[in-house]
Amino acid sequence: MSRHALTHSSGPRALLAALAVALCCAPAAWAQESSLKEEVKERLSRVETELDDWDVPGARRELSEVEKLLPADVEPLKYYQGRVAFEEGRYDDAVALLEGANIEDKPGSYLRLAKDTRDITKAHLRAESEHFIFQYPKGKEEVLVPYALETLEAIHRAMKEDLGWTPPGGKIRVEVVSNARELSKVSTLTEKQIGTTGTIAICKFNKLMVTSPKAVARGYDWQDTLAHEYIHLVISQMSRNTVPIWLHEGLAKFLESRWRGKAGLAMTPSTQALLGKRVKADTLIPFEKMHPSIALLPTAEDAATAFAEVFYAIDYVHGVKGTAGLRAIIQELKAGQKDRKAVEVAMGMPFTLFEKSWLAHIKKQPFPTELLPREDRVVLKENAKGNVKDEGEKKGREISFGDFQEVTEVPARKFAHLGELLRERNRVKAAAEEYAKAHELVGDKYESVSNKYALALLELRRLDEAENVLRGSLRVHPGSPSTNVHLGRILLYRKDYPKAKTAYLEALASDPFDPEIHLALTRIHGSLGETALATRARQASVLLTGLKPEEVDRVAQQFLQDEGGLSEMNVSGTSDSEAPAAQPEQQDAGN
């Protein structure tokens, strides 16, 4: 989610030099107007500055004045027209103008960037809300649309309230790309950098660029990510791009949960555990070492530690001064203050005292007592180790022996593996006993152990025990899609529709392409009388399963009306001819 500095082949100095040559070659009467030449150069310099400051409307205004003064075929004019066209999302125009400016077509150049972005997005579909344009590949990404626009509008309202800023210049573009290769092409980051840092989304060029969840091995918190990147856009525009990276990331991480409630909800227990370890070892990352990018720190653990540190820095500011403190820091930076001075003014204390108070604030946090597996790192499918389900693969009973690779405690891993072997052979009671042994050794530490144990308990119809295991896992691994789905089944079976809705929507926020989620929501929304939401869930189910709308309704109503679907769900990617058989199947729960 980090912002990245991007380099390009043609800078303002070279273009202004080219402008001087162009002016000398202009008609004599025009070229003799030295004051006019100075005005042109000054205005083009302002265009560059406005673009650097993320003020595209300002750049457009300055460029409109230059267009009145220069012949249309002057190359520097075409260059800046191309730059503005690119920032405004007019990619065909940008390519034509940059080619007319004789920009070299090579990696890192604006011309190559405009061409690649045009080619990747030309077939994209688009949906609009009041303040956003959401562009996405044709296919399953269509299910993202209503949830994405709701998230974006919610964070738009929240940032207007918290920071007092709404982006000028029309609707904000959000472009969904299919994979890391495409993200590389539209951002100029290399695929290696994306794979190494786990970068999944970028805010740059007056837009948000987000990778589809289908490219990620276990999904990712794509709604929080949309909010996070929008906050980067707001901060950059509001400050005229003067906020240093540590404050930028701290603000975005702290505020990203505002679309769904309070700020400060984004810190995971695993990251807290890592931060606690680094505090105890006295190996925190100094703020100055986070520049120019946290992603460039020596190790992934260093980067995760730095993100946690800046989160708690903003948490401390907010706790003492509220949103007024956050606004004050941004305004001081916009006015030209350095980061330390901006914090001093906003907080009313010397920076050294701020650092001591912030460190004391960190040490007060309720750190987990043991180091937990980090689940906040995005793993692309092509880099994933172990089993990654094919998109069309049915979930069935969710038997997989590769799920326990993360379990480092050998005895627990052996118990879990034996439990999976027994469950595969339908010896469910014996399987549950082995999972119980593994769970007793590691507690809620591993999602895989908790979920397989819960599935076995569900097959045995021991719902209360399964619910306790799942809720314990969610305390350590909040937002886990599989855990929320399994919990949702229990709640839906009990007809506790409001709580079931919460669980399935939590799952959707990380794994939006699981057909079960949308089938369950079709039934839940219908039962709650939420007609429009039921229609939305039904449309997503049709897209993801291939079933007809009336078949979706039938399957959704049958799902979890009895105990047979508690431990499995077999609807996914079915063709019309297969639809009648696409129902939950009851398994023998005996030993």
Automatic annotation (TrEMBL):
Region (Disordered): 563-591
Signal peptide segment: 1-31
Organism: Myxococcus fulvus (strain ATCC BAA-855 / HW-1)
A Pfam family assignment: TPR_19
Ranges where the Peptidase MA-like domain occurs: 196-363
Residue stretches of each TPR repeat: 481-514
Low complexity composition bias: residue spans: 578-591
InterPro entries in the record: Peptidase_MA-like_dom (IPR039568), TPR-like_helical_dom_sf (IPR011990), TPR_rpt (IPR019734)
Entry keyword set: Signal, TPR repeat
Protein known as: TPR domain-containing protein
Tagged with keyword Signal: yes
